[in-house]
Amino acid sequence: MKIDFHIHVKLSKKTNFDIDHFNSILDEAVANGLDAITLTEHFNTHRFEDVYGTLDRMFTCNNHYYDRDGFKIFTGMEVDVAEGGHILVSGPKDKLLEIRAILEDHTSLDHFIGLERLFELCEPRGMMVIGGHPFRESNHLYHVDRELLKRFDAFDLNGKDLHEIGIQENIAKVLTLGEELGVPVVAGSDAHQMFQVGCVHNTFVGNFETIAELKEAVRAGAYKRVLSPSLHLQVRAANLVKKLLKKKTEVV
Predict the structure, then answer these.
(1) 81 has which bridge partners?
(2) How does strand 65-68 pair with strand 60-61?
(3) Residue-wise pLDDT tens digits, 189-235
(4) pTM score, two decimals?
(5) Using an 8 Å Cβ cutoff, are 130 and 147 in contact?
(6) Which residues form the PHP domain (predicted)?
(7) Where in the chain does DSSP place strands (E)?
(8) I need a surface site. Which of 6, 15, 45, 133 has the fewest CB within 10 A?
């Protein structure tokens, strides 16, 4: 199975969910040989409920993933925490939406939930919790208490950061942090539209039906991270197109 653990389905937090935009992302993922993605739209995006509400009407879901002609869309979201980081939470859809409902009062900057409390919500519900882009200047995690960092199921080797920080420098930083804490590192493109899809992904032997199974495989180290040779071009193109499209589509 080839999977990207960090995919957005909207151009930005301020845009409406558009099924055609979403399908263009999936088409590109298939074209790049992926078998699955984890849907990690921001938990405080404009009309978050439209994302899962629309997908419920469009595709079948077994509470673990939506099926689009054999392509798997595992359910998840990206959560801001009080410490300043971004956390990728994925798992059974009913449990995910349960957590999202609890977070309704924590969607603004002044009220973001603490990381420890988020773990307390996620761990008993069997969620996979990934520390997003731990060395990104604007939303880093490396400064957080080490005992908290050890609770992550993985850290995110992020496509955008590989471009902006530098491939070798970012790999060194994230892998060193993971090795020091005993936390695996998985790849996520952080794509918001089609051009960035496929710049990084993970390859597993075998197929998986649940996030729990994927989490076990990650813990066992039974996967490889793959970086596209055109990563820099893909991210540059994505950044340019995103800026142009946001001017036309953002909700005021």
Answers:
(1) 113
(2) antiparallel
(3) 999 999 999 999 999 999 999 999 999 999 999 999 999 999 999 99
(4) 0.96
(5) no
(6) 4-115
(7) 2-7, 36-39, 60-61, 65-68, 71-80, 86-90, 128-131, 154-158, 185-188, 200-204, 223-227
(8) 15
